[in-house]
Design brief:
By secondary structure, this protein is α+β, with helices and mostly antiparallel strands. It has 4 helices and 3 strands. It is elongated and about 60 Å long.
Length: 96
């Protein structure tokens, strides 16, 4: 039994490639989004002023959509942000 070899199409240089937007960013990519330096990102994270980071394969990253929502809400501290997310996730449990 022999393996079938499929022909490889040559790349068309005129064809534009679509770039995917990242779902997560590390401190190096987050810093320009927040108009600050990497050290400031680390300081804000350590002091609880950024949304909770995600650890993926030893890297510390932030969800881009969550960062955008956090900024739209006025960039509250992490504790306030997590409380707000909990209320939005389960509104019936937090009503009186």
């Amino acid at each position: 039994m022999t393996a079938e070899v499929l022909p490889i199409r040559p790349l068309n240089p005129a064809r534009k490639r679509r770039r995917l937007k990242p779902f997560v960013v590390d401190a190096k990519l987050l810093a320009p989004l927040l108009s600050c330096g990497v050290r400031t990102i680390r300081t804000l994270d350590a002091s609880g002023k950024l949304p909770k980071a995600i650890r993926i394969g030893g890297r510390v990253v932030w969800n881009v959509d969550e960062i955008r929502e956090w900024l739209a809400c006025g960039a509250p501290d992490r504790e306030s942000w997590e409380a707000r997310k909990a209320i939005l996730k389960h509104p019936s449990q937090h009503q009186r």
